[in-house]
User: Fold this.
Amino acid sequence: MLRSLVGSEMCIRASCRGFAANGADKVVVVDMNLEQAQRVASDIDGIAMKANCGQEMDLRRVIMAVEFEVGAIDVWVGNAGIPANGGVEVPNDEWERIMNVNVYQHVWVARHLFPLFQERGEGVYVTTASAAGLVTQVGSLPYAVTKHAAVSISEWLAISYADAGVRVHCICPQAVRSGFTEGSDGGVAGGDGMLEPATVADELLSCMDKRQFLVLPHPEVLTYFQRKASDYDRWLKGMQRLHQTFGKVMMRAPARSAAKL
Assistant:
């Protein structure tokens, strides 16, 4: 029985109907913008909470509040993510910001939620990573590094907590229409098309039903991943060409760090 689902706005907006059809009694929408979370929650008879996923104390507070006031959390969707373009010149404060949101978010949730999953013998955790975590992101060293880390954390959690009944799914899309890509065509990530959030949500639900770890809304990503593994040097040469056309432009563009955090 799916009692409680916690996730951030973009994923929940798209997937609430699907989760409701699978028996979710309550959906908790978490966002830094409480009014935005409330708009989504009101459409699905859910609950809105304000939190910064780049702060451990906020995530701990959400977990404790939901468990106490709503009920046991069955599914957690770790969807928050931020960009940061540039290379080794990116300053430490930007690195710290993107690491907190794109990487430590998942460590902190596991730290405070997975013991509860273990006690109950079940639970589902969903990481929204990126195709950049399987291949790379030209022009953005911090994003490529943090999304690789998100995939690695997901793999480790899936391996280490399987015997406790915990399932982990890792979403690795390319460009998805959201606040993250607003006003653009997705850049280099949009080469295989910009997907609607509902398409990503449908693929997630399908993979959850199949108990499939890797969620690839853009099926082309699997081919890129396989090519990388089968001939690393050839893959690197191809990415070097992509860097010449897209990466250098991205590295010269104004910083896309999330200053609001």
Notes: DSSP finds eight helices and seven strands in the chain. The mean pLDDT is 87. The CA atoms of residues 49 and 175 lie 27 Å apart. The helical segments are 9-21, 34-43, 56-69, 92-120, 141-160, 197-210, 220-230, 232-252.
